[in-house]
Structures are given as structure tokens and as C-alpha cells.
Amino acid sequence: MSGTEQKSKISIRNLNFYYLKKPVIHNLNLEVPEYAVMSLIGPANSGITTLLRSLNRLTDLNREADLEGEILIDGVSIHNQDISVTELRRRIGIVFDVPAVLPMSIFDNIAYGPRLGGIKNKKKLTELAEEVLCMASLWDEIKDRLNMPALRLSGGQQQRLCIARALALKPEVLLLDRPCASLDPISTAKIEESLVALKEKFTILISPHTIEQARRISDRVAFMLMGSLVEEGLTEDIFVAPRDNRTDDYISGRFG
């Protein structure tokens, strides 16, 4: 891990989030570096899923939720009135813990978003499908079965297809909420391998399903507890010499 200062892709400033007027995230400030993998770690009810959903405004869909503070991408507020929410969600893609493939072919899962965006040319869509399936470490396994229903894939393959589908929209940021939570070790390893390669082109913010995964794949780690950011830093620093005793207790398994 390099200690070189990196440009921030996303800046979170004085973020407070309330659900049914109950605080979920408290005065959170965080810089998410460009072209890196940052892991958000913490026990249940730390606000991590809410934070991820806030970053591409999925929380807008909940009328019982209120947000205060600023979230900036490339220095521009995601709540700016000139920001298209549809375009924002293209720029900041998200993949959830349970694979949510569409009830159609593997190819059509990939092509669905680009088609909505105006790409109709079959050759371009085919080239795009190969590109993103390679990025998701899935191409070699299914290249001869692109017309097969996606629901016939294994759980691990479905999750990688979901990642490929998000990548097909050419995002700048990829949010991953426990993407390996229900997967076997082999599928998990393939996704981790993909993520390490993908950071060359994308900014990745992940809620890992284990502490060990955070240590394996992250450039930086942020530890959250009960909706507050306890500390953030280079992965090696967080795991070897955390500044806060609560971080040390969590990563050593004394609670959580």
C-alpha cells in the first residue's frame, strides 16, 4: 500500500442521516480516494448500508428518511438541482448482498442498461458484454452460453453477473454492499481478484463480509460504529496500529 496522497473522488462532509427522525449516521466526514478500494467495516447497525445507499441517492426513495450535510462527487454536490438522479446512478453503480439478476438471458442482463441508454447496435453490445464479463472474471465460464437464462447460473456467477451489469453502464464509482456474504470461498476469491484489478479504472467502496476480506483487498479502511466514523486510514495502519481502542477491539474479534 502506498502512502502517497490520492485525489478524492467522493467527499462526505458533516453527513447526518435520520430514519423516522432517529439518527442513523452522525456527523460523518470521509474522503473516498479515486482509483482505490476502500472498505467500510463495522458491526451491525453501524450505518454502512445506509451510507452506501446515500451515495447514489437510493435513500431518496424512502419518504421517512432525512439527510443533512454534503456528498460531493468530483467536487459537485450529488444533491445539486442540476444533477440528474438517473445519470448519478449510472456514474455511481451499486451491487447488493443478494444477487438480483433479471429474468432474462445472460446477454440481455448485460445489454439491458446500455439499451435503455440508447445503444442498439448488436456488435457494440456484444463487444461490451465480453469486456465487462472479462472484468468480472466470468467470461471464460459462460462465453458459450450467453443466451442461457441468467437464473440458471450459480450464486457466485450471478453475483459476478450483477457486477458486470453495473460495469456495463460505465460507472466511475462502484458501491458493493457485502457482495460475497452468501458465496462459497472459490466465488469469493474470484470476486476479490476482480476488484483488485478493477481499481485501476474505478473507485470502489465496499462493505466486506469479513474483516479478513477487508485486509486482503483494501487500500484504505474506514471503521464505523453506531453510525459514527471512528477512524480511517491505510489498511496496514488500521490493522497493525489502530489509533482507537474500539477499532483494535473490533478487528481482533473482541466484539462485533
Distance between the termini: 26 Å
| Domains, number | 1
Order of helices and strands: EEEHEEHEHHHHEHEHEEHH
Report the C-alpha radius of gyration, rounded.
18 Å
Unreliable spans are none
Strand line-up across the major sheet:
6-7-8-3-9-10
**Overall spatial form:** globular
What do the pLDDT scores average to?
A: 93
Percent strand? 25-35%
What would CATH call the class? Answer: Alpha Beta
Summary tags:
256 residues; alpha/beta; Rossmann fold; six-stranded mixed beta sheet; four-stranded antiparallel beta sheet; 10 helices; globular
Structure, explained:
It is a single chain. With 256 residues, the protein is α/β, with parallel strands linked by helices. The chain has one domain: P-loop containing nucleotide triphosphate hydrolases (Rossmann fold), CATH 3.40.50.300. It contains ten helices and ten strands. The strands form two sheets. The chain has a six-stranded mixed sheet, with helices on both faces. The protein has a four-stranded antiparallel sheet with strand order 2-1-4-5, with helices on one face. Strand 9 and strand 10 form a beta hairpin. The longest helix has 14 residues. It is globular. The two termini are 26 Å apart.
